[in-house]
Backbone:
């Protein structure tokens, strides 16, 4: 592959116009480079497993995984996806609702931040996977414990990013707010929260992927539907290709959620993006 | 009634901050009287308490000693008739020029009415930003951003304008131009201006009076009327008298930086 020979076949560039090398053009074409890398990995995977006769239970070839999708009705797949999606979104929503007041408290009051922060760090340090069975015992086996587990995994980055964001406001604007004798609620809604938007969105992006992980952990422990449940069930039945198919859907779900958060930011808060990405 | 002539009055004002490393005296025994519609520039070494002086005047800070009064009334809380301009424009990056100028109204009352919008349009024209109403701060040059900052401070038509090194983040040419524009604004609509700067020529060119402060704890070291009539232009500082005056101020500041 002589990639560098490519530009020679182009029509002669206008005098003084800088020409881009092939690699540079590849870097600048959106999606081109990641797409190619992804394709390369798939090809190596497919041929590697065939050439070295890797057993399916160790690593099924992508083509075998594709057949795993046929093992289950599309409507069943949809139910599993929806179950996981619902728990992830509910847990994520609860995490947002609870993080916001905590973050406002931490940002506004040195007393609260001294008092609460260590406790939050302790909660964050508890391995949720280990507590999950206990939570299920305490809260039963419907959505509630799964949402709680999801919330526990996903809320901490939100609290941290929101608090950081709320405190990132230029002190001059806070002084301006005080000099106008505005109520605290307006200082938060008109200055601090909008200023925190870029920080909040980085937190949301981390948190939404953690929510999917939380939902799957909860389903591993106790569930009768959902992608996490399906993967565990299929593995225990030694149906590896369909377990891998479930995993592929899980990755797709996680990516889609992550991208949706980015999309919402681009659509509704374009000013909060770094300049070069507007 | 003679006292009421003073727009701003400091009497034996001291400000001591409690810091983690112990008490820090920022200002001590400051005496200063500024008449209505007077333009006073304050010069002084870094950290001598110039910004603290502004905070005390605006009511954001209560003095730990002495008394600060505005129009004869002791300052106990922020007042509507005092506008502030900061070194950085510190605009709201998500709000366009109009909304940034409207910010005081929206922040004070929660909503804005048609008369607020009319006032915003008027003030935007006064500072020469017409045509840029819908642009975001990120799309404006530093000079234009500071114009928005000034328009925001003028929105409530304050009697007193506090400016904390408002042009020091700008390039030299823009800085000079902005200074003259400020003088035009001030002459068209007289206000009491307390103007903090590190630039001697800027202080002398703009102000009626120049106050020089000592190093921390800040006191008023010297207080001079600027020997220069109005209107002023780029050539106003050329005369030997002005050169001597500026040399004197420079000496004063250098001596203090060394102390
Ligand atoms: N809220 C505060 N708490 C503790 N110390 C403070 C506080 N505000 C100001 N200081 C200290 O008081 C001194 C004077 O501060 P101030 O900002 O008024 O100085 P300044 O003359 O404006 O300086 P500069 O020229 O750098 O702007 C400084 O040493 C500063 O660290
Ligand atoms: Mg200062």
Residues:
């Amino acid at each position: 592959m002589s990639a560098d020979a490519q530009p020679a076949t182009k029509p002669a560039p206008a005098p003084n116009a800088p020409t881009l090398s092939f690699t540079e053009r590849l870097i600048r074409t959106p999606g081109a480079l990641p797409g190619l890398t992804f394709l390369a990995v798939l090809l190596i995977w497919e041929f590697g497993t065939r050439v070295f006769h890797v057993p399916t239970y160790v690593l099924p070839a992508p083509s075998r995984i594709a057949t795993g999708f046929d093992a289950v009705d599309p409507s069943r797949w949809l139910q599993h996806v929806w179950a996981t999606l619902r728990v992830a979104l509910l847990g994520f929503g609860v995490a947002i609702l609870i993080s916001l007041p905590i973050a406002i408290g931490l940002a506004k009051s040195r007393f609260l931040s001294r008092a609460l922060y260590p406790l939050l760090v302790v909660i964050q340090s508890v391995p949720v996977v280990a507590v999950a069975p206990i939570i299920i015992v305490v809260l039963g086996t419907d959505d509630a414990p799964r949402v709680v587990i999801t919330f526990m995994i996903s809320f901490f980055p939100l609290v941290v990013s929101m608090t950081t964001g709320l405190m990132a406001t230029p002190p001059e604007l806070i002084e301006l707010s005080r000099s106008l004798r505005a109520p605290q609620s307006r200082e938060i809604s008109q200055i601090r929260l909008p200023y925190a938007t870029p920080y909040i969105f980085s937190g949301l992006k981390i948190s939404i992927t953690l929510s999917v992980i939380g939902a799957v952990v909860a389903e591993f422990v106790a569930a009768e539907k959902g992608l996490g449940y399906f993967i565990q069930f299929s593995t225990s039945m030694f149906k590896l290709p369909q377990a891998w198919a479930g995993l592929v859907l899980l990755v797709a779900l996680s990516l889609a959620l992550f991208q949706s958060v980015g999309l919402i930011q681009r659509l509704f808060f374009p000013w909060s993006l770094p300049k070069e990405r507007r | 009634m003679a006292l009421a002539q003073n727009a701003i009055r400091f009497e034996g004002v001291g400000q001591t901050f409690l810091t983690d490393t112990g008490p820090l005296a920022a200002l001590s025994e400051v005496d200063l009287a500024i008449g209505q519609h007077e333009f006073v520039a304050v010069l002084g070494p870094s950290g001598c308490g110039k910004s603290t002086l502004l905070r005390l005047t605006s009511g954001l800070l209560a003095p730990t000693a002495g008394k600060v009064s505005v129009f004869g009334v002791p300052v106990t809380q922020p007042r509507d008739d005092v506008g502030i301009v900061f070194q950085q424009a510190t605009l709201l990056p998500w709000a366009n020029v109009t909304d940034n100028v409207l910010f005081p109204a929206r922040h004070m009352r929660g909503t804005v009415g048609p008369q607020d919008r009319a006032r915003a349009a008027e003030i935007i024209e006064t500072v020469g930003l017409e045509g840029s109403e819908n642009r975001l701060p990120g799309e404006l040059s530093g000079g234009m951003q500071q114009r928005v900052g000034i328009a925001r401070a003028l929105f409530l038509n304050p009697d007193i304008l506090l400016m904390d090194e408002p042009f020091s983040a700008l390039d030299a040419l823009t800085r000079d131009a902005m200074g003259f524009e400020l003088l035009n604004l001030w002459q068209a609509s007289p206000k009491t201006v307390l103007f903090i700067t590190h630039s001697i020529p800027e202080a002398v060119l703009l102000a009626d009076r120049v106050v020089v402060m000592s190093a921390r704890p800040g006191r008023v070291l010297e207080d001079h009327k600027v020997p220069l009539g109005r209107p002023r232009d780029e050539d106003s500082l050329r005369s030997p008298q002005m050169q001597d005056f500026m040399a004197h101020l420079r000496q004063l500041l250098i001596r203090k930086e060394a102390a």
Notes: Chain A has one domain: 62-277. The two ends of chain A are 35 Å apart (CA to CA). Chain A touches chain B through 20 residues (CB under 8 Å). DSSP finds eleven helices and no strands in chain A.
